[in-house]
User: Fold this.
Amino acid sequence: MTAQLIFDYFPSLTETQKEQFVLLAGLYQDWNQKINVVSRKDIDELYLRHVLHSLGIAKIQQFHPGASVLDVGTGGGFPGIPLAILFPETHFTLVDSIGKKIKVVEEVVRGLQLQNVTAVNKRVEELGQQYDFIVSRAVAAMPTFVHWIKGRIKKESTHQRRNGILYLKGGDLSDELKDYRTAQIFDLTDYFKEDFFETKKVVYLPLKFKG
Assistant:
């Protein structure tokens, strides 16, 4: 599967963005041999399982120039790096507590010449800044995640949608989200036709979690 998959779903990419998405696969294949951050099976389907999945967030929320987005538990750089390519005027901070994963993120960011990404080897609780949105890909159950990121979301919203969490999750979320009345769930099958997305969702949780 090639970067054409991304081009088909995001037809207005610039030439620079297209080049960066093409370069992505080689960079991950190279670095994954040195530091394993993506499973062997997933490396072959990188554009589907990691890149396009990450960009599901962009189908729900477009980030403004000058906005700040925090990617918690970024692992090898997902969803942060694909989103940073798509929104070059938005600043992304990618945080992970595992140093070797952040090393891969830094090298991929350098290889893509991304100017809008900061990689941080810390736990999210150790960060001092606040952000417009916090993104992540199923690093913990929602109540745990909400506890981790407490105080990290800016109160003043500049987007039409209120600042909050955009979380990539799969499966039945009814129990996990039962305490969050303001949560909205978006099925990625509404945006992508591949079978991989059958159970995949984006959960949006605005700043005032209880509503």
Q: What stands out?
A: The first helix runs from residue 4 to 9. The chain has a mean pLDDT of 93. Residues 17 and 86 are 7 Å apart (CA to CA).
